[in-house]
Amino acid sequence: MSLRIRTSACTALAVAALAAGTVLTAPAAGAAPKAAAPKFLSASQLPPHPSSSWTAGPVKDGFPEGLGTCVSTEGVPSYDYRHREFRTDLDTNAVQLTVVADTAAHAKALAKHYDDLIRGCADRIEQGSPDIEAKGRDYGKLPVEEGARVRGVHTESSGGATDIALLSVGRDGRTVTVVQWAQLGDFGDAPVSAFKKTTTTAVNKLY
């Protein structure tokens, strides 16, 4: 999806996110003091593009709009979100989100919630957009810090447009990070091995 996916798919997922319900409890009063801000990937740490270099945007506060196709903040406590967006000169983009929960237990629940949303993303797209066929793939877990998982989502519209995205969720203590890479294409165009390396780097680099 240049995971801008398609306007109709994004609208459908906004409705699907509302149906997800609350899965996490709100942070307890007297939350733990803030730790050092987690670090982000650099452009050179993304899967290499065959004909265009990556450009990294600044680290910004808030939840990135481009990640909202498969992941949302519905049912999640109001944590402080930070993100960084990346692009190439062609139709390939990426984004990294970080969020620090008040406890490791809440971070574990948040990571599972995000992974569940990604796992069910293809089904929600098809339910909300009959003109789009979507499929998901599980590329497995990664042994880094408290763990990470990589998944893929492919969409094809009735007009023939195809998009592929790789998404991962990882955790280091109280911090959860979500990484997304996306471009035009299908599963055969996805740099799975390189993205797994990027995900491992992203989790290791948090602190």
Q: What order do the helices and strands come in, and which of them pair?
A:
Layout: H1 7-19, E1 55-56, E2 60-61, E3 81-87, E4 92-100, H2 104-119, H3 121-128, E5 132-142, E6 148-157, E7 162-172, E8 175-184, H4 192-205
Antiparallel strand pairs: 1-3, 2-3, 3-4, 4-8, 5-6, 6-7, 7-8
Quick summary of this structure?
This protein has about 210 residues and is of the alpha+beta class.
Structure, explained:
The protein has 207 residues and is α+β, with helices and mostly antiparallel strands. It has four helices and eight strands; from the N terminus they run H-E-E-E-E-H-H-E-E-E-E-H. Strands 1, 2, 3, 4, 5, 6, 7 and 8 form an eight-stranded antiparallel beta sheet that branches.
Based on the model shown, name its key terms.
207 residues; alpha+beta; eight-stranded antiparallel sheet; disordered N terminus
How much strand? 25-35%
Helical segment tally? 4
> What does the average pLDDT come to?
86
Q: Tell me roughly what share of residues is in helical segments.
A: 10-25%
Number of strands: 8
Low-pLDDT stretches: 1-23, 26-32
General form: globular
Assembly category: single chain
Rg computed from alpha carbons, rounded to a whole number of angstroms? 16 Å
